[in-house]
Amino acid sequence: MPYGLGLLKGMLVTLTNFRRKPFTIQYPEERVPQHPRFRGEDFVWYEERCTGCASCAKFCPLGIIRIVTRPSGMQTQEGEKYALEVFDIDLARCMFCGLCVEACPYDALHMGSGFERARYTRKDLVMTIDELRRAPKRPSTWFRPQLEGKGYNPHTDRPLEWHEVGRHQAPSLADMQGRWVEER
Ligand code: SF4
Ligand code: SF4
């Protein structure tokens, strides 16, 4: 190969790509828009919907959800709702597979939309029940067709209340009492 030809070829590649629109951005000044179905951290948990059944913990392949419950004495006609004492998710080990969200029968747990929860220690990456209570209620639409059907975008729309995120309408007290009486 004549001397300098390789250098010329290399420069040609550089010049060709120099004119192309870059795919990269200057993060954090600029941000790539996320899809509404993005599976991020800061899980969205609605305590009002949660019965403490622990299905999410049982289905997590990594066993990183820890739930401790006690009898609450509430909703006894529906089989009793547990009161939650501990609900921890170890985000340091989470692979954001979403199986816990798929397993939740009451649409109480949803994937979050964030991705900037960096911490200096692993133990600070455990999301506790208090953090779950405080976390922004902007659920990802992943595995939530009821939110996708409404065109909800967690990145731009308002946070949602517990009664807006379920597939089913919760029965009223009158409904529950009526059924209880009918079944006797
Ligand atoms: S997203 Fe997957 S790994 Fe993370 S807590 Fe849920 S089931 Fe476990
Ligand atoms: S978040 Fe869902 S699956 Fe997990 S304990 Fe609560 S109701 Fe059960």
Architecture overview:
A hairpin with a 6-residue loop joins strand 2 and strand 3. The protein is built from 6 helices and 5 strands; from the N terminus they run αβαββαββααα. It has a 3-stranded antiparallel β-sheet. Strands 1-4 form a two-stranded antiparallel sheet. The protein is of the alpha+beta class. 22% of the residues are buried. The mean pLDDT is 89. One iron/sulfur cluster binds next to helix 3.
By secondary-structure content and strand pairing, the structural class works out as alpha+beta
> What is the percentage of strand-forming residues?
15-25%
Number of strands: 5
Gyration radius, in Å: 24 Å
Q: Regions with pLDDT < 50 over 5+ consecutive residues?
A: none
| Helix-residue proportion | 10-25%
Mean residue pLDDT: 89
Strand order of the largest sheet: 2-3-5
The small molecules bound here are: iron/sulfur cluster
* Count of DSSP-assigned helices: 6
Most strands sheet: 3 strands, antiparallel
Q: What is the 3D form?
A: elongated
> Termini distance?
94 Å
